[in-house]
Amino acid sequence: MRKSAASLAFDTLNVVLMLVMVVVTLYPFVYVLMSSLSNSMLLLSHTGLLLKPLEFTTEAYALVFRNPNIATGFRNTLFLTTVGTIVNLTLTSLGAYVLSRRGVPWTRPVMLMIVFTMFFSGGLIPSYLLVYNWLHLGNTLAALIIPGAISTWNLIILRTSFASIPDSLIESARIDGAQDFTILFRIVIPLSMPVIAVMILFYSVGHWNAWFQAMIYLRDRELFPVQLILREILIQNSTQFMSSDAAAGDAQAVGESIKYATIVVATLPILVVYPFLQKYFVKGVMIGSIKG
Amino acid sequence: MMKVWSSAIRKDFRLHKYLYIMIFPVALHYLLFQYVPMYGAIIAFKDYQVAKGLFDSPWVGWKHFVDFFDSYYFWRLLTNTFMLNLYQLLFVFPAPILFALLLNELVGKRFKRVVQTVTYLPHFISLIVICGMITQFVSRDGVVTDLLVWLGMERTALLGHPENFRTIYIVSDIWQTIGWSSIIYLAAISGVNPELYEAARMDGAGRAKQMFHVTLPGIAPIIVILLILKIGSMLDIGFEKIILLYNPNTYATADVINTFVYRRGLTSTLEFSYATAVGLFQATVNFLMLVFANWFSRKVSETSLW
């Protein structure tokens, strides 16, 4: 069909609008990258947009990597992300499997009890007291893994996906003598890999980016995840401890580019895995959203 | 009666032994980390002292609630929470719908993918980094401030003034969420019956008309569902972001119920009972609003959560 002038105008306007969206979303990251590679003195006196580094230098990165807090932070975050995600996946799969079985009389009330927690909760303080005073998990990394072991939203998505596996497949496995654990790990999970991949992405990004629980439960700096260290640098403005070996007058200037360099360092791991997982998560979110 | 029950349970247990074993850690998790805190919220009616514990701390009835309602903070917190939510409802909520509609009209498949990939990205960046970027950009010599100065504004640190807080919060919220939130609407759009477009074209509807008269009504149910959920959390707001962005200078517009609970309960003063009462007030109002929104929607649009 031949396009009318109105239709053509619509398309052009739309493309322009979308290009603006892309630039507006990406430019802040470009700005951060360019700033992190700039001479900090020049950066301090620069105003307006930035399209290339001002006197290319990697001095800020050297300072970031020399900082011992960043190193232990990354170690803790890596631990939390791996162990936390494994715990998340195990519990969420178990729950999703049981709740997706048909013909079990009690799954409906259990499901209702679980969904209710999405709409009502005891609140921040009782949860804190439970973890800190009653379970004595304060100042442990377990406090950042165990209380959040299941996300109800993810549980519902996974349950929907598990429920779409044909009953006949599960029944024939049962006739061959397989019991539920075998069915879950040998049949249901392998058949749900796209959604499981999405769960891995959601949970691990969650752990990687988490900071609030760490802030309220942890006291020892040796346990701090990298986001908490970033908070000190980016939000509370304490870059002194990183730039102490620079000349006193330059400390503030160096602080500026250190901030941008830490943003890059903390964001890079996600940017690296992101393109590989993208094809999975769109699909996964849709499975969850249409039927969920 | 009891006997009938216990024998039925025993029979069911034999039949589904492994399912019971599998659900045990899950059920334990929900009981311990969701239902125990709900019970623990009774400290809102007590003067909780750590040394005395949950059971032996003295009852005080509605004292903490009354204190909160009478305090100077009550209206300020309620207004701030409500205003941020209202702005979210007016600007952040419709943005991804409009975005999804326009994205759906894009002709080039590849370009569409590029736009999607780019706009999803902020969703995966940590809040600390996002807020770090915001504070940098709107600081006295930040890049956003530079642009606004170029447009004629006087140079100042934008986050230092209470009148700017809501705008900064909402604009950055749109930037962060527009792409990711649009996924759900795109999914719904792909489910709209193509014959409807054919019929609309026959009737002479142009592209924009098709968008507003076919696509939009087609995704109305999912919009209503998300709207109900949004209204059901009207006293909730992304408070982690506020904690990272606000400071005593901007409390006048930035302090919300959640941040107040956090400050009163977990920093310096440790007023556990008072903070719990404030939190419980919020949770209850939210829940009632959700129930009301759901009831109302079922009445007028036959779409509802339950």
UniProtKB/TrEMBL annotation, chain A:
<keyword id="KW-0472">Membrane</keyword>
<keyword id="KW-1133">Transmembrane helix</keyword>
<feature type="domain" description="ABC transmembrane type-1">
    <location>
        <begin position="74"/>
        <end position="277"/>
    </location>
</feature>
<feature type="transmembrane region" description="Helical">
    <location>
        <begin position="258"/>
        <end position="277"/>
    </location>
</feature>
<dbReference type="GO" id="GO:0005886">
    <property type="term" value="C:plasma membrane"/>
</dbReference>
<protein>
    <submittedName>
        <fullName>Carbohydrate ABC transporter permease</fullName>
    </submittedName>
</protein>
<comment type="similarity">
    <text>Belongs to the binding-protein-dependent transport system permease family.</text>
</comment>
<feature type="transmembrane region" description="Helical">
    <location>
        <begin position="183"/>
        <end position="205"/>
    </location>
</feature>
<feature type="transmembrane region" description="Helical">
    <location>
        <begin position="141"/>
        <end position="162"/>
    </location>
</feature>
<dbReference type="Pfam" id="PF00528">
    <property type="entry name" value="BPD_transp_1"/>
</dbReference>
<feature type="transmembrane region" description="Helical">
    <location>
        <begin position="12"/>
        <end position="34"/>
    </location>
</feature>
<dbReference type="GO" id="GO:0055085">
    <property type="term" value="P:transmembrane transport"/>
</dbReference>
<dbReference type="InterPro" id="IPR000515">
    <property type="entry name" value="MetI-like"/>
</dbReference>
<keyword id="KW-1003">Cell membrane</keyword>
<feature type="transmembrane region" description="Helical">
    <location>
        <begin position="111"/>
        <end position="135"/>
    </location>
</feature>
<dbReference type="InterPro" id="IPR035906">
    <property type="entry name" value="MetI-like_sf"/>
</dbReference>
<keyword id="KW-0813">Transport</keyword>
<keyword id="KW-0812">Transmembrane</keyword>
<feature type="transmembrane region" description="Helical">
    <location>
        <begin position="78"/>
        <end position="99"/>
    </location>
</feature>
